[in-house]
Design a protein that fits this description.
single chain; mainly alpha; two-stranded antiparallel sheet
Length: about 220
């Protein structure tokens, strides 16, 4: 929302206004979904944070609108946009700490980190072309943190894969009739005809109940 207001203060900022308007709609949907499905404590905390931040943003906009003019208004809103955007990129820092501590990338999706980094790069280039310091600065932070996230993902994903492979190697092979079942399966795959190892007999079509049935017939 702050970026939308910033775009109204800048000439030829239609792209900035359009993208952030779409962002507001999408983020609002995210928040609604979170509030609906979150536990009660998290729901209450989220509502409080929404109230505090939205009221703060509204007060800031009103103050700058009525008490600031020209370049000073742009500077106040511009720095506010820098702080909030840097906070967006810094939000995954807690997840990065968890990844390092647990050596697991379960809660840090690579796709999200990748597209956040790509977005930061594009906005950085856009800000440099416009010579707009307030657009460029937070996206420098975004590029750095996004790159670190992707590096962590690659490192610890490879680490987890190696652990899984080692665990598979250490798993004992199941034994059937003194035979290694893995060797049995391998021989069955490469054999042109069915084979069974061990003492198992196949192909016999005997009536196991034949003697009993004959005895029953004699009795009759």
């Amino acid at each position: 929302m702050l970026w939308i207001y910033y775009a109204t203060l800048k000439p030829n900022a239609f792209l900035l206004m359009t993208i952030n308007s779409i962002g507001c709609v999408v983020e609002t949907i995210y928040i609604i979904v979170f509030i609906v499905y979150a536990p009660k404590k998290a729901r209450i905390l989220t509502l409080k944070l929404l109230l505090v931040f939205n009221m703060g943003a509204l007060v800031l906009v009103l103050i700058t609108h009525f008490f600031s003019k020209g370049r000073s208004r742009i500077h106040v809103i511009g720095w506010s946009c820098v702080v909030t955007s840097a906070a967006v990129f810094a939000a995954p820092l807690s997840i990065m700490r968890s990844v390092i501590h647990t050596k697991s990338v379960e809660f840090m999706p690579f796709t999200l980190s990748f597209f956040l980094t790509c977005s930061a790069i594009l906005w950085l280039v856009y800000g440099l072309l416009l010579k707009d310091f307030y657009i460029s600065l937070p996206n420098i932070v975004g590029v750095v943190l996004g790159t670190i996230q992707m590096l962590l993902y690659v490192v610890y994903k490879k680490f987890n894969n190696n652990i899984a492979k080692d665990h598979e190697r250490k798993q004992p092979s199941p034994i059937v009739n003194g035979k290694n079942i893995n060797h049995i399966k391998a021989s069955n795959i490469h054999s042109s005809s069915p084979q069974v190892s061990g003492d198992i007999e196949v192909g016999r079509d005997e009536n196991l109940y034949g003697p009993q049935l004959e005895h029953s017939d004699d009795g009759v």
